[in-house]
Design brief:
It contains eleven helices and two strands. By secondary structure, it is mostly helical. Strands 1-2 form a two-stranded antiparallel ribbon. A hairpin with a 3-residue loop joins strand 1 and strand 2. The radius of gyration is 22 Å and the shape is elongated. The two termini are about 45 Å apart.
Length: about 240
């Protein structure tokens, strides 16, 4: 472990033990360095690293504060980190496997907790998908919103953030699927309708099965196509078009 890593760990320990709770202000740099037995340079580097990780927030002219430490903040970088694996087929399949493990369970949990208003929001995204079935870009945008609304209904912010990060990575695969398979839109819509119908019954087992079927079909399709070709490098998540 480098000296900087040790310095980072010391500050993290202060946060873990409650000596620096969420929202609290760190001592001035000289005082912090003395308290931890560090040089000012090491203290400064540790603070910078923890600021990048969203553990600390540096406010110019005011000082450095511990953030809220909410999962959505601390795990915010997951999606960006995952996107760096764009050309790694093995990593993409690993992520699809993780999605298959998590999303059906999340959907089952949502079935037991979803409110009427949340169910109406899911239906809005499903209706939007029906209207966009011939538009790859819009279909995928509403697809992502549909799944976000479902997982949001669990009330589990950590689970939502994790799946958001993974889905951001797999969005590109879904776009590719729509570009090369003109039947994908209809199949995807039918699978989402099955998920919605299961949620309407508040049946956790049925919701789990519908979500598992959907994710498994996508994963199976992806595995088959990656055996013979590579994911196009000129398809962008933002537009779903070739650059």
């Amino acid at each position: 472990m480098s000296l900087t890593d040790k310095a980072i760990e010391q500050i993290r320990e202060l946060i873990r033990t409650g000596a620096l709770p969420p929202g609290s202000k760190l001592p001035p740099e000289p005082e912090l360095a003395a308290q931890l037995g560090l040089s000012r340079n090491l203290a400064r580097e540790a603070v910078k690293a923890l600021a990048v990780a969203r553990v600390l927030e540096v406010r110019r002219g005011d000082g450095t504060y511990v953030t809220s430490l909410q999962p959505s903040l601390l795990l915010e970088g997951l999606g960006g980190a995952v996107e760096l694996l764009q050309s790694d087929s093995a990593a993409l399949l690993d992520l699809m496997e993780v999605r298959r493990l998590l999303e059906p369970v999340a959907t089952a949990l949502a079935a037991t907790r979803i409110s009427d208003d949340q169910l109406a929001e899911v239906k809005q995204h499903l209706d939007a998908m029906r209207g966009a079935r011939d538009d790859v870009e819009q279909l995928n945008a509403h697809d992502a919103a549909f799944h976000r609304a479902v997982v949001s209904a669990t009330g589990n912010e950590t689970l939502l953030t994790l799946l958001e990060g993974i889905s951001g990575r797999t969005l590109r695969a879904r776009i590719w699927r729509g570009l090369v398979d003109d039947q994908a839109g209809g199949r995807t819509l039918a699978e989402h309708e099955a998920i919605f119908d299961a949620l309407c019954t508040r049946d956790a087992a049925l919701s789990h099965a519908a979500a598992l079927m959907h994710v498994s079909h996508t994963e199976q399709w992806l595995r088959e196509h990656l055996r013979s070709t590579a994911l196009p490098q000129d398809v962008t998540p933002a537009t779903g078009k070739r650059s």
